[in-house]
Design goal:
Layout: H1 2-17, H2 38-46, E1 54-61, H3 63-66, H4 69-80, E2 85-90, H5 98-108, E3 116-120, H6 125-138, E4 142-146, H7 156-161, H8 165-176, E5 180-182, H9 184-194, H10 215-224, H11 237-240, E6 254-256, E7 262-264, E8 294-295, E9 298-299, H12 345-351, H13 357-402, H14 415-418, H15 429-443
Helix pairs in contact: 4-10, 5-6, 12-13, 13-15
């Protein structure tokens, strides 16, 4: 009877996992904090085939943001707004918590200058907020934040009964910095309770979602359904700044000179020049148009502040080798050459084209570590030999002392051990010998011990 019950329970569990996720629709759920992304939402809603909008979207964070739910969300947005030209990227770095991202953001986030930023990361909340504040200061991005889904060991019923501190902290950061906030933690908990699931039902491990389940659909849907348009609003210039489209023709802020020169007067930290494509037809042999850029009469490249370093390369893992590279002066173009040590296996393999460059570099590093280990071992052997020689000298001194012929050794024997040959120390001679024995034992040079 108990066996039958166990089989039925197993079927019930399988049936629970098999429940399909609902169909989520972008903007179907109202969220008052969506007021903070209305410049973007207005552009999406007003895009047409004749005048398509271009919207730059960036996903940033760590491994959770790197998972496949971002593809699902972008698919939802493209289906909702088919005329929009979405330029998007996912630059999340698995394993990088908020302190690390405060440094990589200078190459990944700020130069990308997104219209809309989806941001989530674990780690100290003060560093989390530092990234949000710097995004506000460096870009005109509108920002979407959300609380975390449940990980292994978290009880959804308890999470609903008493909100966790992390969710409260993220909501507070969103309020202080006027970001949209999605309480995904609450919605995730309600979903688990409604389906009678444990937190692990949609997980591949303790925290990452299982792509073979509907986890990505839920995650993307819970965020996407709250990306709603609030009629009569068009953004918050005092929070996210302004984006102004200026036609490249003579006007108040534009002067058109001879030879096709155009002079733009502006206040801001970014200018994007967009070509209309008129008179440019590669099929007819037209050359790509070129232009020289000047800022306040000087070449743009002459300003140190106009340069930034892209994310440093990775080697063994996906993580960048360096977190942040800064410029103290204008960068100088240089050619660097990597030279392999002559005669090494790695050099021969690379010369023969048998391994990629990055693999050859990794092998070189491994060989360097092995060489260091050999040097360390040789050093240990040398120190061991020194101990053996010291112990031999001690044994010779002790032997002379026991034979009564030794004078007080000055350098070879410790002072108290040397007294073993002094007639006034006869009553304490055995303890002295034991002391020498212990000293020899510590050097690893005792062969059978000392005997009287």
């Amino acid at each position: 009877m108990s066996k039958h019950k166990m089989i039925l329970a197993t079927f019930a569990a399988i049936a629970a996992v098999a429940v399909a996720a609902p169909e989520f629709k972008v903007g179907s759920v109202e969220n008052p904090t969506a007021i903070h992304i209305q410049r973007t939402m207005k552009a999406l809603e007003e895009s047409t085939a004749e005048k398509p909008a271009t919207v730059r979207v960036l996903f940033y964070g760590q491994s959770i943001v790197r998972q496949g739910w971002t593809d699902v969300l972008m698919k939802m947005l493209r289906e909702k707004y088919p005329t929009v030209n979405f330029v998007w990227a996912n630059k999340a770095i698995g394993g990088f918590t908020s302190p690390a991202l405060t440094r990589t953001a200078w190459s990944d986030l700020f130069p990308y200058y997104p219209d809309l930023l989806f941001f989530h990361v674990y780690g100290p909340i003060d560093k989390y907020e530092e990234i949000v504040k710097n995004t506000r200061a460096m870009t005109s991005a509108e920002i979407v934040l959300w609380s975390s889904h449940l990980s292994k060991g978290q009880d959804p019923k308890k999470m609903l009964a008493e909100r966790d501190q992390r969710s409260k902290d993220i909501k507070a950061v969103a309020e202080r910095n006027k970001c949209m906030f999605v309480d995904l933690n609450r919605k995730w908990s309600e979903m688990l309770v409604a389906n009678d699931w444990a937190a692990t039902n949609l997980l591949a491990d303790g925290i990452h979602m299982n792509g073979k389940t509907d986890a990505f659909k839920y995650y993307a849907g819970f965020i996407g359904e709250e990306l709603c348009r609030i009629p009569g609003t068009s953004g918050e210039p005092d929070v996210s700044g302004t984006i102004t489209e200026v036609p490249a023709k003579k006007g108040r802020d534009v002067k058109v000179g001879k030879g096709g020169s155009v002079k733009l007067r502006f206040t801001g930290n970014r200018v994007v020049a967009v070509s209309s494509g008129v008179n440019f037809n590669p099929a007819k042999g037209a050359q790509q148009p070129e232009a020289e850029l000047f800022l306040d009469g000087k070449p743009v490249a002459s300003y140190k502040e106009m340069w930034y370093c892209t994310r440093p390369s990775t080697l063994v893992s996906w993580m960048p080798m360096l977190y942040r590279v800064t410029f103290d002066a204008l960068p100088v173009k240089e050619d660097w050459t990597l030279t392999y040590l002559d005669g090494t296996l790695q050099a021969r393999r690379h010369r023969e084209g048998r391994v990629p460059l990055h693999v050859a570099v990794r092998l070189l590093r491994e060989e360097a570590r092995r060489q260091e280990a050999r040097v360390d071992e040789e050093g240990r052997q040398a120190r061991r030999q020194d101990h053996v020689e010291d112990a031999a000298a001690l044994r010779r001194s002790v032997r002379r002392a026991e034979e009564g012929r030794a004078e007080r050794p000055r350098a070879e024997l410790p002072e108290r051990a040397a007294r073993a040959g002094d007639p006034s120390e006869k009553g304490r001679q055995a303890p002295r010998n034991r002391e020498v024995h212990h000293l020899l034992a510590r050097t690893g040079a005792v062969e059978g011990g000392l005997r009287r």
